[in-house]
Structure formats: C-alpha cells, structure tokens
Amino acid sequence: MSIQKQVLAVVMGGGRGIRLHPLTAERCKPAVPLAGKYRLVDIPISNCINSEINRIFVLTQFHTASLHRHIQNAYHFDPFGGGFVEILSAEQTEKTSDWYQGTADAVRRNLQHFRNFPHDFVLILSGDQLYRMDFRKIIAEHAASGADVTVAATPFPVSKVEGLGLMQVRDDLSIARFAEKPKDPAVIASLVLGPALESRLHTSHDVPHCLASMGISVFNRAVLADALAGVETDFGKEIIPGLLGKKKLHAHIFEGYWEDIGTVRAFFEANLALANPLPPFNFFDPEAPVYTEDRYLPASKLSRCEIDHVVIGDGSIITSSTLKHCVLGARSYVGERSRLEDVVLMGADYYETDVQQQAGVARGLPPIGVGRDCEIHRAIIDKNARLGDGVRLSPVGKPDGTYAHGIIIRDGVLVVPKGGIVPGGTVI
Questions:
Q1: CA-CA distance, 366 to 352, in Å (whole number)?
Q2: Which DSSP symbol is given to 110?
Q3: Which one of 118, 217, 287, 349 has the largest count of C-beta atoms within 10 Å of its C-beta?
Q4: Residue 282 maps to a domain
Q5: What share of the chain is helix, strand, coil (3-state, %, to 5)?
C-alpha cells in the first residue's frame, strides 16, 4: 500500500500560544508569519507534501480565522489524488461542550473524523517548529522495527535542554524512559547519550548531549485508539510515558536543523537567522520546497538603500533607508532615512489607497509601515502596524513589560502588536 493510503497526518495547533504573546493575540500559533512570506503551519504541511503524505488535519481552537483563510487560499489538491488539508476546530458535541484540554484530548475528540479514511498509521506533528524532515524515513523505520509508537528525537546539548522532553534510548533504539521537561541536573545527567548511541550519530559532539523529543510521533492506528480510551489529556506528559512497558516504543533519531518556535525570543532569533549568508534552514532547497499562499504581488522596489543581510518579502517599498540583519514581510514599507537593525517587520495584509491614507492622516493616523527618520533596533513589528516619522524603538537596557502605545518588551525583544499605532516622535 502506498504511503498516501497508509498515513494520516495530524498537525497540533490548538494551544493558546501564551509564550508567543503578543504575536498570538489575534491569531493562533500556526498562523504566525515566518521568513517574510510563510506561516508556521506551512512547515509541517510542506514536509508532509514533500513526503507524499497528502491527507492532513490541522487541529485548532483559538483565533482560527486567519489560519482558515491561509489554508483555503494556499492548499488546493486535484480531485483525483484524494488529498486535503482540513481544519478541525474544537466543537460542542453530545459528549463534550468545552475546549480541547490538551494534545491527546484534541486527537481523541477527532478520532471519529479519522475513521472515515483508510489508514494504518497516524503521524502527529507540532504546528510551531522549523525543520525539514522526510517523513517517509520515520514511517519506514516504524514499520520495519515493528514498533507500536515511534517518537522522533534530536540530539541536544545538555546546556540547552531546558523546557524540552527528554528520553533515554537503548542501543537498539527502543525507548527506556521519558522525562518531561526535567530541571533536576541529576535527572538530566542520567539521560546523557552513551558511547554506543553517540557512535551511531553522523555528527560527533564535544559536549554531553541528550535526546530531546521533537513532538513528532507515529502511532499504529489501533494503538492510538486504545491509548486514547482513557481521560489523559497530553501526549508528552501522559500518553507516551504511560505506554512504556506496555507497548513497543521506538526512537527515530533526527540530526538535521530543528527549532521549537514557542517563545518570542525563539521566533525572533529563528527569523533573523534566515538572513545570514548560510542560514541553518534553507528555504531555497528545490528538492523540498516550502509551500504557501500565492499572493500575486509585484516585485519589491528599493531606492538608494543600504542593505546588509536582509530578507525582503514581495511587494515591499523601501526608500533611502539603511537595513541591517532584518526580515521584511510582504507589503512592507520603510520611509526615507530610516535605520532598522535586527528587526522582523511583518509587513501588511493590504495596500492603503491614497484616499485611505488621507482619511487616516485626517484622523491622526500614520500610514501603514515605518515612517521617515525612524531608528528601530531588536524589534518585531507585527502586521499592519503604523509607525510615524521620527520613532525611536529599542529594548536595550529596559525590563520586560508593557510600554506606551501598547508596545511590549518580552524576552528582551520589543514588539509592536498587530495593527499597533506608534505616533511620530515616540521614543522607547
């Protein structure tokens, strides 16, 4: 049986995204813009399509409108291949009337929808990670090992495992132990990779590493249904650890680039890394493209600018400005003599007409984008934000918190929320 008929993919996108606030104030995590033209959800969906998996469910419940629009506009399958990307939001039924209580609860409530399609395996994915992975490899390894559940794991240095689920794996790649986000140094030390497993890796390490769960797993269909027969709500904390000793659990070791974009700092740094000469994630790979909505925008226009390591989305207009280490989204506008350094400018959802701009100015609103003579450093400017002339923004030396005009500093990064208005002359 082909992999298209064997596998259903389920993308988990139902969390509130509290750690990504204010970027998730008006959108769910999978809908957060990425790399100038994409959204986070495009990563798992593209990985599926490139792996010949074309039946994909996205489970959501918070601020789903923009995600609905994006998926409907971006993903169209021919009627003969049986492919789809379908959003399943939390809904009231005869049995339940509340929100998803966790990742496992979200899948449990949608098993009835999965049963409508023939499949042997369910591939469960996170909606807030940046990586490129051929899922055919983990599926093939899962089938060959005879495992009931296979969990993808990546080697992480001990100094960076905070907030990650860790696992202890035997030499045959069977899973012996799980530790969900351990903080005790003794527990972490007990999970360090041994020489036998280290020797199997393609990359040698000078410092101790642990295997961190990637939030990607493959379940046999019947095993998943049995595991969800109870009331447990979370895969990482309850379901998978609860199967230890009862089912055959196997690890699939992945050594490519992988970044969990769960915080403002992680989002900021992952985006800016894409502006490097050799970024850790390559959007230019012709063998495994990242798909997204085609907006049919004109090419960007730059006039008398100084540009150094910058990603610029389609339809942008930048005039007589200096940009250093920045990522600009579609329809970005930067006025004359402005300087941006270490900035993620998400652009806009639409162009303002002359009439709209004049009406806005009459109400005291700056046009959408960055005005003239602005200085912005280490900041995220969300979509449709309006920054007047002479604005100076930087989080350096300032504590996290909320500042004037709704500006927020979080994780040491200054954020102007979506649709934010920053009057001319503002200094933070």
A1: 11
A2: H
A3: 217
A4: no
A5: 25, 30, 45
- Angle made by CA atoms 244, 246, 247, in degrees to the nearest 5: 85
Per-residue model confidence (pLDDT) at position 237: 86
Q: Which helix (H) or strand (E) holds 221?
A: helix 221-227
Provide the token pair at 288: 């495994």
What does the pLDDT read at residue 96?
A: 58
Q: Are residues 267 and 307 in the same domain?
A: no
pLDDT tens by residue, 10-63:
999 766 678 899 999 988 888 999 999 999 999 999 999 999 999 999 998 777
Q: 111-115, 135-139, 268-272, 375-379: lowest mean pLDDT where?
A: 111-115
| Most confident listed range (89-103, 118-132, 152-166) | 118-132
Residue 128's CATH number: 3.90.550.10
Contact indicator for 24, 106 with CB cutoff of 8 Å = no
- The number of distinct structural domains making up the chain is 2
Tell whether 198 and 118 lie within a shared domain.
Answer: yes
Alpha helices in 55-205 (DSSP H): 65-74, 103-114, 135-145, 185-190, 195-200
CB atoms within 10 A of CB 200: 10
Q: Which pLDDT score, from 0 to 100, does residue 14 have?
A: 65
Question: Over 70: is that where the pLDDT of 331 sits?
Answer: yes
CA 142 to CA 39: how far, in whole Å? 29
Per-residue pLDDT tens for 153-209? 999 999 888 888 899 999 899 999 988 888 888 999 999 988 888 878 877 788 889
Are the beta carbons of 69 and 85 closer than 8 angstroms? no
Residues 117 and 264 in one domain: yes
Residue 150 and residue 37 in contact, taking contact as beta carbons nearer than 8 Å:
no
What span, in angstroms and rounded, lies between the C-alpha atoms of 154 and 211?
A: 5
Domain membership of residue 260 (yes or no) is: yes
Token pair recorded at residue 393: 């923004």
Residue 297 tokens, joined:
């925008």
Same domain, residue pair 210 and 330: no
**Confidence label for 408 from pLDDT (cuts 50, 70 and 90):** very high
Residue 383, burial from CB neighbour count under 10 angstroms (0-12, 13-18, 19+): buried
